[in-house]
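Q: Start with the shorter request: fold the first protein.
A: Done. Sequence, then structure:
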Amino acid sequence: MSAERVLHELEPLYDACSRVLILGTMPSPKSREMGFYYMHPQNRFWKMLSAVLKEPFPTTVAERRRLCLRHGIALWDVLASCDIVGAADGSIKNAVPNDIGGLIKKCPIETVFTTGKKAHTLYKRFFPRLCEDVCLPSTSPANRTISEEDMLREYRAIAAALKE
């Protein structure tokens, strides 16, 4: 499989009350196909988020949107475009960032969480002093180096940031 140029076509999810921003690298092919974030059925993002927020697992895009906005969570990705093979973050080349700074000016974001090391590396490269940031483990089905219990422990930082 060869790299293809991918343009980020999903709008950021946020409102005037968003205090936490969660960033991935680039939507997966499944997420692009379904028009929303973390939509691969084996991705553990929604399982982690609903657990740390003590909410029922959201099954529809509408439920997922409401869950985030109800809790002051914004979603987007670090990149506006890149060359990538499938959903393999390790293959990313020619990365162009989204306007994260512009988004942060529109709402009271206090903390940025990145989902995975590549998203964190790219965030730090493009936005080194923008906002406090925390690197969380990737919820991608490709990341099986961490147990769900350990991942959940780290994702509790989101709930803690929302309580501050």
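Q: Next, the second protein, separately.
A: Sequence, then structure:
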Amino acid sequence: MKRLQSLWILFLIGFLAGCAPMASETAFTPTDLSGKLGQGYKQKVDNAVIILDASSSMYDKENGKQKVEQAKNVVLHMNDTLPPLKMQAGLHVFGPTLGPNMDDSKLIYGMTDYNAADLAAAVKTVQVAGVTPLAKPLLKSIDDLKNSQGQIAVIAVSDGINTATQSPVEAAEALKNAFGERICIYTILIGSNPVGKKVLEDVAAAGKCGFATTEGDVATSEGMADFVEKVFFEKEVVKPVVQKVVPAPVMEKTITMDLKVLFDFDKTTIRPREQDQLDEFAAFMKSHPQTTAVLEGHTDNIGSAAYNDGLSQRRAESVKKYLVKQLGLEEARLTTKGYGFSQPIATNKTKAGRQENRRVVAVISATITVKE
């Protein structure tokens, strides 16, 4: 199979040729992730299905740009960031009338080896926009993936609104039931409609191992690299080599684990990019059940002292709730304290400095027995 990158680039070039020209966008410089596979990470996805929303609501403008253009840019940027992985791929478009059978949800390429001529012919069948039957591509993916082997990632790029009569959440549950632990579902919200956001969050949750994010979170090179890493890579577990050694003297050693969770302006929501370090923090505490932690919340200096005192406390409580509800730590082992903007670690005169100050931090230590 040729590289997935060529597949996505040519699809979107063909798609744009059949639609109105896309407005100019801010230059995107992809992060080179090719070295990840040699730095303790391995590929975890054998099959990837991209579900692209091209329905009528996606032709509405938000922030001066059609949402369908934003969705295409997301797929282009994801494609640019992906290293040349060996996997099967498919691209499923829904919304427009596709082909002579008047389909409004169709796998227009894959799951097969890449062929430029066949892909171009499929792209030209896209004609007009219609409703948003998000449930259809999710259900059709069951058949599209019936011959797949290995792990599956389904990535839906949509505004999540006007989803016709079928429930996309129920469709996602059916897809999960069909493939079990082999499949994870990820969603990327285009636009800011709160109803659409909730739909896509519930669709991702139905997959049990994926997550929901937004176009804004993946718009930067760093944000997209973080998304690609979480979806397509996983840390490789190296089995230790067991060797017979002479018993060494026993001694005690103190080890520490630091936590630093950053937040968006005036927000308490845990961002997807922060989840890995929270997983590691929770694993450390579970490995050392005698440890406790104080979660300290902080803010930048925008706003009143009273408001920021409360915001910093809410951020600390948000991290505690995530560690307890999502990662299973005992609530009694965690306490919280909000410091407002009284303890900055960077200047509040720059955007980057204020981002560093919007944080929840913790340091825990444990005494372990080691051999010299």
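Q: Describe the second briefly.
A: The domain at 250-371 is CATH 3.30.1330.60 (60s Ribosomal Protein L30; Chain: A;). The longest strand covers residues 250-262.
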